[in-house]
Amino acid sequence: MLEPDLVAQHRQELRRGTTSLACLALLAQQPDYGYNLLSRLAGLGLATEANTLYPLLRRLDKQGLLTFEWDTSDARPRKVYATSADGIALVDLLRTDWNLLTDALNRMEKP
Asked: Does the pLDDT value for residue 40 go beyond 80?
């Protein structure tokens, strides 16, 4: 029987990269701010905690994969993130890799 902690650890590793790719892909479709991005991810079945998302957005920004602008139309300014040209190129590459991996896993026989 698999230990729940071991399963949780491996699921977390799988989700980490998936969340980065999902954020870049969603923000390429429509720029957005963090709180709304959390809702969009959850709506796709990729529920993410705020304490995971915001450091991820900062890291992607530092890597040049995201850009942001300040939205000052409300009383409280907030960052609106968008995927940069480099981020869009990375999404295209990673989607190709994802599809190749998925195809390979689907061709494997189950034990």
From this structure: yes
